[in-house]
Amino acid sequence: MGIARLIIRSVVAASAAWPFAVLETAAAQGGPTALIILHDRYASPDMLATMGGSLSSAGYRVTVPEMCWSERRRMDDDLATCLVALDKIVENLRRGGAGAVFVGGHGFGANAALAYAARRKVEGAFGVSMSHYPDMLAQRPDIAASLEEALAALRTPRSEQAATFADIDGRKPMPIRTTARIYASYFDPAGLTNVVENASRLETPMLWIVGASDTSQRGRAYGFQQLRHPRSAYVTVNGDGRSALGSSAGAVMDWLRTLGR
Fold first, then answer.
1. Among candidates 25, 101, 111, which has minimal Cα distance to 67?
2. Which domain range does residue 144 map to?
3. C-alpha dihedral (225, 226, 227, 228), degrees to nearest 10
4. Residues 109 and 162 in one domain
């Protein structure tokens, strides 16, 4: 599959036209398979080093970008703007000879990968320990109040003013300082992080990986069953939401082989 590379880079903002336009880029089918892997919220690309390294050693061209929801950046831009920046990575991979591009992620990164793949021309998606369900989060009184405040501010000058909103890290409350526009882009159940909606519009195959002891997962009926492609797969590996990463590289490689990759 060509020379394997593990690239860690910082994603910069690009066109705000996304998510309405669809990027149509033809793949050079005979080239190497490229994998873009997105980290969890309030995490860093380093967390994916073992998984990315295993895939890279197997011959896949791996890119692990730092996203705007990282521990360092802490949601410093809205989700649509952050994801549209992946277009440049995909374009560069295609121009560099990639025959197929898959977007995957861990935790919130899996959610974001699904959102991106549902709106862009990539060959497929994969996710480990999918997380961040805005419909469930909105049932928490503190987040519901913050979301109501953010949505009310969207059509006012207050939408760009920094404020403190409710958030959680795992189950631990962790307030976040950001703008109403940015907060709503992550927490609005009608927005880009709606897993069921994104799954229903995805046209390419997706690998859905869950840890056997991950109690945060919602099962096949939530998201996976809405996938339409017959090559999509639901796989259980050892571990919980975080440690499942250690068993996921093999699952990704096995699945890609079923796709001829």
1. 111
2. 140-192
3. 110
4. no
